[in-house]
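Ticket #4471: structure output looks truncated?

Reporter: J.K.
Steps to reproduce: submitted the chain below (68 residues) through the standard prediction queue, then opened the result file.
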Amino acid sequence: MKLPVVSGKKIISVLVKKWYYIRSQKGNHVHLRHLVKISVTVPNHRVIAKGTLKEIMNATGLHSSDLQ
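Returned output as attached by the reporter:
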């Protein structure tokens, strides 16, 4: 599976569509919550590092097709 190059803004918008909501923001890090799933912190950078993207995808259940 090849990971796409995405921004923090794109990940946040996809997660909001999947019923996550923005709890708070401190600096460039946005904290998102879900009623049932685990909370996640997304860095609001232009390009998300591949390791960070992989961890966010594992924690939230996102697939690379969701980020296209």
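Triage note (M.O.): checked the attachment and the full token line is present. DSSP finds two helices and three strands in the chain.
Status: closed, working as intended.
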